[in-house]
Amino acid sequence: MKARFLAAIVIVGALWAEAPARKKNSAAAGSSKTTASAPAYQQLKFPPLKPVKIPEIATFTLSNGMKLYLLENHELPLVSGVALIRTGNLFDPADKVGLAEITGRVLRTGGTKSKTGDEIDVELENRAASVESSIGETSGTVSFNALKENTDEVLAIFRDLLMEPEFRQDKIDLVKTQLRGMIARRNDDAASIASREFTEILYGKDTPYGRRLEYVHLERITRADLIAFHQRYFFPANVFLAVQGDFDTPAMKAKLEELFGGWSAKQPPVPPFPPVTASAAPGIYLAPKPDINQAFIRMGHLGGTLRDKDYPALEVAADILGGSFSSRLFKKVRTELGYAYNIGAAWSAAYDHPGLFRISVSTKSASAVDTVKVIREEVERLRTQEVTDQELRTAKDTVLNSFVFRFDSPSKLLSRLLTYEYYGYPKDFLFQYQKGIESVTKADVLRVAKQYWKPEHFTIVAVANPAELNPPLTVLGEVKTIDLTIPEPKKQLAPASAASLEQGGKLLARTQQALGGADRLAAVRDMTQTVEISMTMGGNSMKAAQKVFWLAPSHLRQEQQLPFGKVIAYSDGVTGWLQTPQGVIPMPSPVVRQVQNELLRIWFSLALSDRNPNRTVNLAGNNTLEITDKTGASVRLQIDGASGMPLRLTYQSEQLAGAPVPVEEEFSDWREVNGVKLPFRVSITQGGKKFADAAVQEIRLNQGLKAEELSKKP
């Protein structure tokens, strides 16, 4: 080994020594010849793209009405498939938006009667396989991928999930929690706001195409709803099943007949999807977002479908307008004027209903109005003058050259042909489309732009900080304001009657007496409390030291020493500020609501709620009080029937990012302070999981706290 290693060094050294000589000789030889210059890129010639070839796809209909599409592909030992179900969120009841999406998610995660979703995860991972499910706007899918050797086992799981999902409640709750988080964060990204509002305005906010998921919808959706939705739409005659991969077609057909032949569920034919009924909604809309320094703009109107005869010409026209780096909008708005980094336009057609003609741009707030004006000018120029030969050729090449990537694998090809079948398109639609693009002329572009693009019907949606729009959008016309407020989930309050209100007052009076008496509670004007907290977050433990200052009726200051630094919060119940290691900022509105809810829960305030005209004390159950105020805050206080002492408090906690979560506080270690009994230990659960233990070190009452001292910033 050592000898070979030394020999290698010698050889490499010799080659290295010879390299300069070889390089010199090569240079000398080259100097006697004229070096040919590289051709310009315009002179490069490429052969035409190979035509797309459609392989033979075997089609069958099983005895129960399920349609099969089988495509053999022996390149790799893999088998994959997808079941396309005629359903969609367009069938969601108006009061239960999100039902289809939750059904699509939990169909997979909820498992089957014999296996939980988690158990299926492990089984599939051990086989390097997958089964997934989802329901979108106009279709539902259940898909699988497997190694050839594991096809039978994976198909069995695929069949059980498609036919008999269990929809376990814990997975429904998990998806609801995830969707609540999405609702709470839906105004974080300005570009997403612009696209969402633009789409909803054009389709109509009260139509199936424009409805928006809210907290209240999630509260109404039950497991029984998911089961009923599945039963209505998941039946054999409503399923298109496509399988491609390394198999023998007759054998696979027999296998699928055996697997699904006994599925005999029947339902009436699924009705057509609802039509788009919205009319033109021209106007200028502003969604105020004070925390950004750019304007995110969407412009356009309703478009058409893929089967429209002029769709190819419209796609080419849109590409010339704003489809690529060579487009007019890109050159004018980005390159020449420097107003935007990204800008684009598209005639986005759908299979079975009008899509959207959309122009998207983000620009500096100060250039928002000028950007809109320039876009209008470029649209009008395309409507009144023919494009150049170069523009037409480039746009057609762009569209046609991307065409091949839609069919560059058997799975893509099968999926697209299945989609055409699903929406009732002819089998040769892709070739019709290709020929349509090839035949587009300059006259066609001018004609369709003039006929279909209606600047007078443009809807313009801008998300921006109004204070930075200079000039304001009103220069363009009347501006309508979009309210981005996220409706809070309605709290489920106990029914109130004269009798329950009277009984609630009596139970609270017992609690007042147990805590030391109403007069002693009312005599407390301020409190200073020192607490040590042990928290569990994301599986990690953390300790914090907290000092709380309260001054009646609504001044609250909290100082917390956390592992990453000190955090101080102050509020007068209406506004406030936060100090973090990064500095002092105005108190965000979710934190203000947290403070308002916490002021309700201060013992001296809560126990005397019957003396507050803005509060209601109601008996919500056996020894349980429900106390609410006019701001919408509410708590439930469970009382020990024998002693009258509080046992636990439950409420919804506001979150900085995410939906409100249920919180329960359980009290113990009651001690007397200045004649008033207060808990020195609190166990806290959040979202049904243990969150923290709080151990009170000291409580001092009536120390003469002053509002100006509490509000003083560090």
Determine the fraction of residues in helical runs and give it as a percent range: 25-40%
Rounded to the nearest angstrom, the radius of gyration is 34 Å
CATH superfamily of the largest domain: Lipoprotein localisation LolA/LolB/LppX
Kindly report the oligomeric state of this protein. Answer: single chain
Strand order across the largest sheet = 18-17-16-15-14-13-25-24-23-22-21-20-19
Q: By helix and strand content, what is the structural category?
A: alpha+beta
* Terminal CA distance: 72 Å
The CATH C-level name of the largest domain is: Mainly Beta
Q: What is the number of independent domains?
A: 3
Provide structural commentary.
It is a single chain. The protein is α+β, with helices and mostly antiparallel strands. It has three domains: 189 residues, Cytochrome Bc1 Complex, Chain A, domain 1; 199 residues, Cytochrome Bc1 Complex, Chain A, domain 1 (2-Layer Sandwich); 213 residues, outer membrane lipoprotein receptor (LolB), chain A. The chain has 21 helices and 25 strands. The strands form three sheets. It has a 13-stranded antiparallel β-sheet, covered by helices on one side. Strands 1-2-6-3-5-4 form a six-stranded mixed β-sheet, with helices on both faces. Helix 12 packs across helix 16. The longest helix has 30 residues. It is globular and about 95 Å long.
